[in-house]
Automatic annotation (TrEMBL):
Residues 957-971, 1005-1019 have a biased composition (Basic and acidic residues). This is Cytokine receptor. Residues 927-1053, 1119-1155, 1168-1187 are annotated as: Disordered. SMART domains: FN3. The gene is LOC112049538. Signal peptide: none annotated. Residues 947-956, 988-1000, 1043-1053 have a biased composition (Polar residues).
Length: 1252
């Protein structure tokens, strides 16, 4: 391209040479080459281009040459070179090319444009003119404690980018890789440490660095030699400690960092400085000579710091170090510091005292004296627990006192007499008292009056100058002037200062620091006499300073609700002309603070007459607290007086009205109302009253201190109703409320809501019509009325109308009744939901997507119309009621007859148990009824009747006691009158034919086959028997209590070997068995015993044991129904023991005995000889019951007196007709009444269920 441009240059000058060949080349280039070559600018066809294209770098000092080319559609006059909007001068090369040539361009970075002015197209090129990198002039390195080496320099200010690399050499060899520096701002830096790569060479004394810099125009390299140990900044000394401390010296030790000890061969220098706490300024340190310290030492450094000025004072020591080669202050280390306190010693001196340094107050014959001295400075105390020891001598009495540390250390209070005193004071600490002491003589009280200084006045100036004046005294030696910082007690709590003035002076000017206020006192001295301290009372300030000690007493009368009267009185009497008047400023204050309310302007009252001592200030706000400040107008200007301020609260008044009353959130039944408290409360506002027209609708009780904005929700409003609301503030203590004005009321109408409930509609006939009244509260525009008609029990029908009546036909299609209910309906079509209000009312606004709302009211009370009844319904109900009554009566009669039938059931005895004919006359069964509870058997028979109420408990279960056993469980217990010769007698329960569950399974199965009527008769008979037993007074639990004489027991005991139930043994003297005595009378009774079992022979007795009766268990047989009225005479049958059939295994009856008889029932199947004849192979099981005979099974109706008498021994016992015909009983009794032990132990089997 450059060759091509050179050809174009030659072409432009070919006219002079007139060479034919060149013209040909130029023509070919112009016609063929230029349109296709120069049409693009950086490959974009914009009809103009700059050559050379892209960024152009020109080394400073070289010329700049650019070409601007366009295509053959335009000429060179259409193109120009520009920088921004500035056009540059250029020459025309040919018709499409311009040339820009600058022989010595300045250093620059500019964008040159080739601009086609016809198409307004531009082609740009960036031109950089700069030089190669120059030398770095501020290269430096710093070593941080020989751990980190940092070398830095300032980046050269060049237009082109300069790239740096830095490396160092070791033994003339450059270390790689070189460091590419980082940059912070304009600073480039490289860092090496002991872990970097390459590693920092700590031990090298000299460091050689090579810095290489380059840019697009060239490069530059520099070598730097650095004295390594001269650029080290050590870490501060560490491990500082005190090895020895004294009162004025201390020995300190410290260490220096290991790298400095190991690698810094040149050694170090030290700087040691110290500062005295509370003495030196915080920025001031005293430097110590350290030239004797070694420059290099591996052990700890030790230094004896001497000539410390104060004992028991805190010092801070700082130690710096640097390399000996380092010349600049920047290479000193940070300091290591140490704080210590020197030891204590006795104070070096006593406090300073001077004549007259006391004030006194006298009462009665005593005086209180405050003795002052000038305190030692704190650094002079020299020990802990510092104080002053005061020795007081008066009237040959001495006492030692100390000042109160919590008050002040500059004085001591003494209670003394009016006589003279000698006061001696020492400085005192934990080490003891000072060697020297200070002394002061206090004369008698009478000698102080003549020297009293009067009219001592202080005038303070703004710059801290005080002008003091007093009335001079004659014939005195001098005055002593005292001053200390101001306080309200006129006692110098802080340090007291004093000076001696000439006796001729009556004024004195003194300059003191203006940061504090000072109070002054003066004393007059003459020889040993002195007046003591007289304090300045009239303290006048100048140039705006407050006047202190100028006492003004402000008083005031009782305030009204709008005015206050102030009175004042001054203690200081100044010269006439000094006071020119008074100025009283006042303002309402905020609550309990002393700050004025900025919302109210401060006001002033000026009094020009200095003789006037009162003023009345009016136009005040009610119940506001005002602060009144009193000031003097003097010839020196206005002077404010200390404590000349009074706070007064005016009385209460009617409050102003509440402010900013607003209404919002309006609904159909509520709204919110808000307000701000009144501008002038004028008292304690205890409540706000909200009015609607002239009616109170709400009271808002508030705290008297509540000043917040109030927001109240008013509920229970009527919908679509107009309200005129106003708020009234009430002052509770005085009972006054703010005034209400018509203009203060805010009009608001609530939103549309449901109407109120209508009254029951009125039903009209001829013509049929329904009428109603409009709602009392419409709640809206009442757009519709709805009627709900209910015919009989059918689905309700809704009818709509806009009138207050509706014509319709009653009872159309109605069978019984129809009801009517009416309600009103409102529709809300309004954008504000029907609400209206003043400007203070924020109305609710419906959203764009909200639909119209419907508000139906409640249904009215129903009105009922009676129509014709249902066909035949009434008659059907009557017939149903009649038939129901007939059925109830018929059922009752049947039940009564059944009951009567059951009541007449009589027991029927089975064969074999009939009553002998000879005794038939004794037992009139036809007249006996178990239900006749008033007819009871004689007492001797009652003893044998069953008692179901008495229970006897076994170890496993509790059961009822009966007088005799039943056929289900016929158990017997031997009863003997001679308990000493009779052992326990066993018995075994037998099971009769009625199928008890505690008996055998086969018996239960047989009982199931018995006729149902027989079962009912049996149960009825059993129930009648039980009823009789329950009514008997003889069947009681008391009959079976244990007799301590006979040994009878209630609870049976089952013998596991035999299965018998035995009675508990009586109290026997000798346990050796004895032969039982035979009873005197024995009777046997057989019930339904099968003929093959018994024989007529009498069995010989086989054992000497007491004889027993047995009940044989046989196959269960159905028992016939028993009808006592039909019971005929049974054939005569001898039942005596001599006529009983003889059984081989049956024990013979016992012989008669007058003193031994018993009754025993025992099952025959317990006999070994009869076990084989039992049809049921199921073995006998011990009964679950107690073994006693149940009342439902057996009753022994035997006259007890006949059995005891003896003549009727041959008579047969009468058994219960319900007893099993298979039962076999033997009865024995004693004829001796004394030994009678006849008892019938009764119990109901738990396996038997009594039928009712």
């Amino acid at each position: 391209m450059a060759e091509l441009l050179s050809r174009r240059t030659k072409c432009s000058g070919s006219r002079k040479r007139a060479l034919f060949q060149l013209w040909i080349w130029c023509t070919l280039i112009k016609c063929l080459c230029l349109p296709c070559i120069f049409a693009n600018c950086l490959t974009v066809d914009i009809t103009v281009a700059v050559y050379p294209q892209g960024d152009i770098n020109i080394k400073y000092g070289d010329p700049l040459e650019l070409f601007c080319v366009t295509d053959n559609k335009y000429t060179s006059n259409d193109i120009q070179f520009k920088i921004g909007q500035n056009t540059l001068e250029s020459e025309i090369v040919n018709s499409t090319t311009r040339r820009l040539y600058i022989p010595h361009p300045e250093k620059q970075v500019e964008t040159y444009c080739c601009h086609n002015e016809r198409t307004n197209k531009r082609c740009t090129s960036r031109v950089l003119v700069d030089s190669p990198p120059g030398n770095v002039t501020d290269f430096k390195c710093v070593s941080k404690n020989l751990d980190i080496l940092n070398c830095s320099w300032t980046n050269l200010s060049m237009l082109s980018s300069v790239q740096y690399t830095l490396t160092f050499s070791v033994h003339m060899n450059y270390v790689t890789p070189a460091c590419v520096p980082s940059q912070i701002g304009s600073t480039k830096y490289c860092v090496w440490n002991t872990t970097s790569y390459p590693r920092y060479r700590q031990q090298e004394e000299t460091q050689y660095f090579y810095l290489y810099a380059k840019n697009v125009f060239g490069f530059n390299s520099q070598n730097f030699i650095i004295d390594h140990f001269a650029i080290v900044i050590p870490d501060p000394p560490y491990d500082l400690n005190v090895s020895k401390v004294g009162t004025h010296n201390v020995v300190i030790q410290w260490k220096i960092p290991n790298n400095i000890v190991d690698f810094l061969k040149c050694g170090i220098d030290h700087i040691i400085q110290y500062q005295i706490a509370k003495v030196d300024n915080r920025t001031y340190f005293r430097t110590v000579n350290t030239s004797n310290l070694p420059s290099k030492q591996k052990e700890k450094y030790t230094f004896n710091l001497t000539d410390l000025p104060y004992a028991h004072m805190q010092y801070e020591v700082r130690i710096y170090i640097k390399s000996k080669k380092a010349a600049s202050r920047e290479f000193w280390s940070e300091y290591g510091f140490l704080v210590f306190t020197t030891l204590s010693e006795i104070p070096d001196r006593p406090p300073n005292m001077i004549a007259g340094a006391f004030d006194q107050s006298t009462y009665n014959k005593n005086r209180v004296i405050n003795v002052y001295w000038k305190q030692l400075e704190e650094w002079e105390e020299a020990g802990s627990n510092f104080t002053y020891k005061v020795l007081v001598s008066q009237n040959n009495r001495t006492q030692t006192v100390f000042p109160e540390r919590n008050k002040s250390m500059s004085y001591v209070s003494l209670n003394a007499t009016l006589d003279a005193l000698d006061v001696t004071v020492w400085s005192f600490n934990v080490k003891g008292s000072s060697v020297n002491s200070s002394h002061m003589y206090i004369p008698p009280e009478k000698d102080t009056h003549s020297l009293k200084v009067t009219s001592f006045t202080k005038l303070a100036y703004e710059n801290g100058t005080y002008e003091l004046s007093w009335v001079g005294l004659k014939n005195i030696d001098n005055y002593t002037l005292f001053w200390c910082q101001h306080n309200t007690t006129q006692i110098c709590i802080s340090r007291l200062n004093f000076t001696v003035l000439d006796s001729q002076k009556t004024n004195h000017i003194i300059d003191l620091p203006r940061e504090y206020r000072y109070q002054f006192a003066i004393s007059a001295n003459k020889g040993s006499k002195t007046s003591g301290m007289s304090w300045a009372k009239c303290d006048i300030s100048k140039e705006g300073f407050v006047m202190y000690r100028f006492e003004v007493h402000l008083k005031y009368d009782a305030p009204t609700k709008s005015s206050v009267t102030l009175r004042w009185q001054m203690d200081c009497a100044l010269k006439d002309g000094i006071i020119t008047g008074y100025n009283i400023s006042y303002c309402p204050i905020v609550q309990t603070s002393s700050e004025c309310d900025k919302s109210v302007e401060n006001k002033y009252v000026f009094i020009s007459n200095p003789k006037q001592m009162d003023v009345t200030i009016e136009n005040l706000y009610s119940f506001r607290t005002y602060q009144f400040t009193f000031a003097l107008n003097t010839v020196h200007g206005q002077k404010n007086i200390e404590n000349a301020t009074v706070v007064i609260t005016t009385s209460e008044d009617t409050p102003t009205k509440p402010r900013n009353v607003q209404i919002s959130n309006v609904t159909n039944d509520s709204l919110q109302i808000s307000w701000d408290p009144p501008q002038n409360r004028n008292g304690i506002i205890g409540k706000y009253v909200i009015w609607n027209y002239n009616d109170t609708i709400y009271e808002d009780n508030v705290s008297g201190t509540d000043t917040s904005k109030r927001l109240i929700t008013l509920p229970g409003l009527q919908p679509f109703t107009n309200y005129s609301l106003s708020v009234q503030a009430c002052n509770i203590p005085i009972g006054l409320c703010s005034k209400r004005h018509y203009n203060d009321s805010i009009f608001v109408r609530t939103s549309i809501g449901p109407p109120s409930r209508l009254k029951a509609p009125t039903v009209k006939n001829n013509p049929d019509m329904l009428k109603w009244e409009p709602p009392e509260n419409a709640g809206g525009t009442v757009d519709l009325y709805q009627i709900r008609r209910v015919k009989d029990d059918l689905k309700p029908e809704i009818l709509d109308t806009t009138d207050l009546s509706l014509s319709l036909i009653h009872c159309e299609g109605v069978v019984s009744t129809e009801t009517y209910e009416v309600r009103a309906v409102n529709y809300d079509y309004d954008i504000y939901n029907g609400a209206l209000g003043d400007t203070n009312v924020t109305l609710p606004k419906r959203g764009p997507n909200d639909t119209d709302k419907e508000y139906p009211g409640p249904w009215s009370e129903p009105s009922t119309v009676a129509c014709r009844g249902k066909d035949g319904l009434t008659m059907i109900l009557i017939f149903i009621a009649v038939f129901a009554l007939i059925g109830i009566a018929y059922g009752s009669i049947k039940l009564y007859k059944k009951y009567r039938k059951m009541e007449d059931i009589k027991p029927v005895l089975p064969n074999g148990l009939g009553i002998p004919e000879k005794d038939i006359s004794k037992y009139a069964f036809s007249s006996w009824s178990p239900t006749n509870k008033d007819e009871k058997p004689p007492s001797d028979e009652m003893l044998l009747l069953p008692n179901s109420k008495t229970t006897v408990s076994t170890p496993d279960t509790k059961q009822k006691d009966d007088n005799c056993g039943a056929s289900d469980h016929t158990d017997s217990t031997a009863l003997s009158s001679d308990s000493s010769v009779r052992g326990p007698i066993e018995r075994q329960a037998s099971t009769s034919d009625d199928g008890s569950n505690s008996s055998f399974i086969d018996v239960e199965q047989q009982v199931k086959d018995v006729d149902g009527d027989d079962k009912k008769d049996e149960d009825s008979s059993a129930n009648e028997t039980e009823s009789s037993a329950e009514d008997s007074p003889y069947f009681s639990d008391k009959a079976f209590k244990k007799n301590p004489t006979s040994g009878y027991v209630q609870q049976p005991i089952v013998n596991p070997g035999t299965g018998y139930v035995q009675s508990a043994p009586a109290h026997a003297v000798n346990t050796t068995p004895k032969v039982a005595m035979q009873p005197s009378t024995t009777s046997y009774v057989m019930a339904g015993l099968q003929p093959p079992v018994f024989t007529t022979s009498t069995a010989a007795p086989k054992t000497s044991q007491p004889s027993s009766g047995y009940v044989l268990r046989a196959e269960a047989q159905p028992r016939p129904g028993i009808d006592f009225p039909k019971l005929g005479p049974s054939p005569p049958k001898l039942l005596g023991p001599e006529n009983l059939p003889t059984m081989p295994t049956l024990p013979p009856p016992t012989k008669q005995s007058t003193d031994n008889s018993y009754i025993q029932l025992q099952s025959l199947d317990s006999l070994p000889s009869l076990k084989s004849s039992v049809g049921n192979p199921t073995p006998l099981k011990p009964p679950a019951s107690s073994g006693y005979v149940s009342t439902a099974d057996i009753v022994i109706n035997k006259h007890l007196n006949n059995m005891i008498a003896g003549p009727h021994a041959e008579e047969s016992a009468i058994l219960d007709p319900a007893m099993s015909p298979d039962a076999y009983c033997r009865f024995s009794w004693s004829t001796d009444p004394a030994n009678d032990n006849l008892h019938t132990l009764l119990a109901e089997s738990p396996t038997r269920t009594t039928k009712n």
